[in-house]
Every structure is written in structure tokens, then in C-alpha cells.
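C-alpha cells as discussed.
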């Protein structure tokens, strides 16, 4: 096998503009693609410099159900600061909690997709 990375992760959303505001304004992601295609809008965002992007899949793009994505792990250098920023933006956050692999918290995007923040343990 010669797989090098995942290209994109699909996040099903009901309203692409609302999701775009959340992922750019709250999480600080950048838009990597925003195209009008015959089957709908192809909208992708990612943290700066990331190899894997997130496709904000709206109605008509693949038949995905909004809010069904789970277990998306986002690595951060400061989970506590990021949790505070999320809370200031009105996002409900569970954690952070200390775990053997690091300090972790969880939250949901406006559509209910489940995301986690992790500051990895060193050593």
C-alpha cells in the first residue's frame, strides 16, 4: 500500500453558509474550494497548511444526512484556550479532560456533527 494521506472528510450540513461561518469564523479554518457544480455547491475548508480538508456537503451533494459525522479529531497545541474560544462563541463544550493520550474535549458544529479537540500527551 502506498497511501499517503486522506484527501477530504465529508461533513454533512443543512446550510452551507452557516457551516462556512462556523468553520471559518469560530474554528479559524480557511476556504480551500468554493465551486458551483451542476449537482450543487462544492465547499471545502481546512486548518491552514493541512493536507486533509473538510467538505461541507450541503443538500443534493451525495445524500448525506446533516449532523451524522462523528469522531472527527482535531489536534491543537492548546485545548484549554480553544475550549475557551468555543465557549465565548456560544458553543457547548464537554471537557477538556486528561486522558492517557492527552487532554481532550468534544463539541458539535451547528448541524450536530461531532468533533473533538486534542492536545497530545508528550512522552
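Sequence:
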Amino acid at each position: 500500500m502506498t497511501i499517503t494521506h486522506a484527501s477530504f472528510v465529508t461533513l454533512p450540513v443543512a446550510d452551507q453558509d452557516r457551516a462556512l461561518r462556523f468553520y471559518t469564523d469560530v474554528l479559524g479554518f480557511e476556504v480551500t474550494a468554493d465551486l458551483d457544480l451542476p449537482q450543487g455547491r462544492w465547499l471545502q475548508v481546512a486548518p491552514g497548511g493541512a493536507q486533509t480538508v473538510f467538505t461541507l456537503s450541503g443538500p443534493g451533494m451525495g445524500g448525506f444526512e446533516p449532523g451524522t459525522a462523528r469522531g472527527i479529531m482535531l489536534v491543537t497545541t492548546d485545548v484549554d484556550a480553544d475550549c475557551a474560544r468555543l465557549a465565548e462563541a456560544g458553543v457547548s463544550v464537554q471537557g477538556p479532560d486528561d486522558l492517557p493520550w492527552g487532554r481532550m474535549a468534544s463539541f458539535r458544529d451547528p448541524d450536530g456533527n461531532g468533533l473533538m479537540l486534542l492536545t497530545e500527551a508528550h512522552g
